[in-house]
Amino acid sequence: MSLMRIAARIAAVQALKGKTLVGDNVLDSQIGALDVAADGTLRTDEESPFITVYTDAGKSESNRLRSWVDNGSTEILFEMGVTAAHIVTDPDTGESTVYPGIPGTDSAFELMLDVVARQIGDAMSDPDNGWADVFRGLHLGNATIGRARTSSDGAGVRLAAQQIKLTVDLFPDPVSGVELKPAHPLAKFFAKAAEVPELATRVDLMQACLAGSAYDWKTNLRRYGLTRAEGDAMLLTPTEGAEDDVVIGEVVVAPSEVVP
């Protein structure tokens, strides 16, 4: 899993919280939020309508030599669901709704999911949404947007779900050992994540992946997946016997003596 994929998923989850009809019930890769039972019916353990965000298949086709940091085309899935178990009955009026003003009927389920799908697009393109801005900065553009729906009536529990599959050209991961500049998309993600205490452990793990030697020649070998012999041939590596920890204190350059 790449750091940019993790960042994109977290940023999307944070950008959607409180921005749709599901409220804060936006989940990060929640396995089982929407599942298929042994009999082929859909099921969910969520107690209220939800959105769950996944990073799915990815493919890099323009890989530079043996690079492992390219992300290329990456699928980001937004799955949303609502079930009859989410219907709430007002004890005073006897009205059953899945959301205030939206009755617990099949057509209302589809209406709600269609609205949530629209709200996802609005939230992720909102210039005033800081997390959405971070998300957009992690990729080059939306290559494709696919939409699908499904439903189930297993064990007497009606469930409707929709999925948005967003395929983006995700930027490459930074190479270990290289200090991120403030304008780097991942640096902006880390800065924004510092505002959310519950993300601290995940951010620490991500930043630990970037630790390593900052020597330029090792960085180039990592970035392109070069062998040491290839680095030697391209004059990217230090001469034999040079130590990694040697610090150059001063370089004095003087013109050669002119010989008549």
Brief account:
Helix content is 28%, strand content 24%. By secondary structure, the protein is an alpha+beta fold.
Explain what the structure shows:
The chain has 260 residues and is of the alpha+beta class. It has a domain of 174 residues: Alpha-Beta Plaits, CATH 3.30.70. 28% of the residues lie in helices and 24% in strands. It is built from 7 helices and 10 strands. Strands 1-4-5-10-9 form a 5-stranded mixed beta sheet. A 3-stranded antiparallel beta sheet has the order 6-7-8, covered by helices on one side. Helix 1 packs antiparallel against helix 3 and helix 3 packs antiparallel against helix 4.
What is the CATH homology-level superfamily of the domain at 3-176? Phage minor tail protein U
- Assign the CATH architecture of the domain at 3-176: 2-Layer Sandwich
- Lateral strand order in the biggest sheet: 1-4-5-10-9
CATH topology of the domain at 3-176: Alpha-Beta Plaits
The Rg value, from CA coordinates, equals: 25 Å
Q: Globular, elongated, flat, extended or rod-shaped: what is the shape?
A: elongated
Total E-strand runs: 10
> For this structure, what is the CATH class of the domain at 3-176?
Alpha Beta
| Uncertain regions spanning at least 5 consecutive residues | 34-44
The separation of the N and C termini measures: 64 Å
Number of helices in the DSSP assignment:
7
What is the average of the pLDDT values?
Answer: 79
